[in-house]
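Q: Start with the shorter request: fold the first protein.
A: Done. Sequence, then structure:
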Amino acid sequence: MPKVNVAVAGLGRIGKVHAEITFTRLENARLVAVMDVVSELANSVAEKYKVKAYTDYDALLKDPEVDAVFITTPTNLHKEMIVKAAEAGKHVFTEKPITVTSSEAIEAIKAAEKADVKLMVGYMRRFDDAYATAKKKIVEGSIGNPLVFINIARDPGAPPGWAQDPRLSGGIFLDMLSHDFDMARYLMGKEVKEVYVKGDALLYNEIKQKGDLDVVTINFEFEGGGYGLIHGSRKSVFGYDLRTEIMGTDGTIYVGSQTDPNLAVGSKDGLIYRGVQWFWSRFYDAYVLEDAAFINSILRDEKPPITGVDGLRVVEIAEACWRSVKEQRPISVRRTL
């Protein structure tokens, strides 16, 4: 069986997940190298999987054994790393969001097109069984014409330090809610036309000081008809909380609930449901399928299921959200490519 030789650049929490999946779960991929600017981290992960360790990204890209790179670094580094990988002839999987700005995203997309390499953006919820089934049922017409998308997303706590700075991460709209923007486009099968946002930093002083928000509500309208509502919060005291509804002319689909069936314990005190503390356990299988889809797109020479343009559309929505917050009015989403 042909295999794609993979390197993972950036060994924070998500980078380690992709390295583990590539090494242990993908039959048609081979982990050959890892890279991180922290030498101790690069060496420890490399030793675990018996692969090459790099602390310099340019040196990694010169490795002739590497066919594809997983970019799992802070968002503000993505554009330059995507462009360099493309110029080196390496296929690219980048974690979400694709970049901090739409202009950077366009530069990355054009670099991949010029080099004729694959570029895929990591929105793993598309590969989750519940969300994939919801999409299938919508396409089959199970709820008629989809009219309304409603989503609640609450993380257990504040993000890492760099992610609290919107100049580096894109802020709550890109660092956190870009998943929800992608799901809105994916499930409804329509582009977002206009957004109107209310939000503030009500939970964490450090987030407020960096100029980001931690509680937001986004009303939006789809092209071709339909409406949406996304509520996001950086705090959920009982754990990771994700719920989605799609209402159509003939029914409604629900994904997730407060009585999440991941685990329930019954005793004399009653029935107690326990959700998940973080998204690793909720979406691990989706990450596996996502990574497999990227590898298959290379081997089959097919367009990746989540393209650079998909990533760009999310950035465009986030930019409109920031304008809406600052100008306190509805803002049309501007297409840049």
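Q: Next, the second protein, separately.
A: Sequence, then structure:
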Amino acid sequence: MRKDDLYITVPSFFRCPITLDVMKSPVSLCTGVTYDRSSIQRWLDSGNNTCPATMQVLQTKDLVPNYTLQRLIQIWSDSVRTQRSDTESNRVNSVNHDQVRELIKHFVNDFRVHSELEMNSDRLSKLLAFSEESAENLRFVASVAAESDFLAILTSFLVHNPKNLKVVEKIVPLWKMLLVERGSLSKIGKANDIYPAIIFALKHGSSKLKMEMLKALEFITSTDSEAKSSLSENSDLYLVLLSFSTINSDWNPDLMEVSVSCLISLAMLRKNRVKLVKAGAVKSVGKALSTAEMGTGLTDKVLRLLELISTCKEGRLELCNDGDCVQAIVKKVLKVSNEATEHAVTILWSLCCLFRDHRAQESVAKSNGMAKILLLLQSNCSPAVRQMAADLLKVFRVNSKAVSCLSTSYDTKTTHIMPF
């Protein structure tokens, strides 16, 4: 092993005392000192009868192999070799600014000639790795891409080859990053043109591809009002996004959270809320809320989506028909976060006070909802939530059946806080 191979710190006892190189075949003299066999053999063959390190006269010139040390050196050498290999690999894969320009230039030229991207997969990988290293790198790639048709070419391929998942999986992560950096889909294409690629990837892609495409869709629907309006006309989109809420062996809470974010963005347009209801949003999302183990972020978003749905008549009807969903909403009050509590109370107020649906009121009573409302009024909630809680108590005050349920399920002496 050469010295320049060992730029990583070498343990001192791995070095031969004579040459200071890492020993290949360590052997020990009778003095207990270990040397590399070739080095000590040359010393002895030169007529010396002493130990080079201690200068003691040798009683015997026998060389005893030090197998333990040899094994330790071998393990260490293998580790160094692996590190060097990784370093060399990273060095080969890394590119500088000039190389980025060349990669994009050749990429664009090759596509113009051959109209396909399979041959450019290695370039895509290098550009993606470079872009992911830092925000500065991403901005540089985006600036170079803006000077050419690079992003438009990626978009064009997605539009015309949505079923070529092998290449699409390589394109989408970089396409999404550049799209976010560019700031708008409308500058490079039309939402309806890219729609088939989005749907196909969400239906048939790997989990990684689905996540990348969902993030791209989340960005499009939250920043581009024109694209959001256009995409919202496609009924299949709601069904595909809601499919990530289906609780089965393939359920992925991360995918569901991003898909719900997309649905919330779409539901910000009032006309889309009825479409969501018709696509089965209350049933699928409500079931997930009542049966799945969700984190705080996902629960907040699910309740926010249901809150938006509850603002339309069709949404309130579906919620009132789904007693399990209403009870699941009640259970989230004071259990998840302040945000989740606010969304949940708003939904309950909409159903029980605004819509005055007796089925919803019964579901709230059965799930001990009024006890939670009483506790909520004693908490440090916002004025808006406090007012809605007070309104809910008034509704149940005049509903003798609800009062009966309340009296049997919750014995309290805090009636002084009731606003009547």
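Q: Describe the second briefly.
A: Residues 1-7, 88-93, 400-420 have pLDDT under 50 and may be disordered. Residues 191 and 227 are 5 Å apart (CA to CA).
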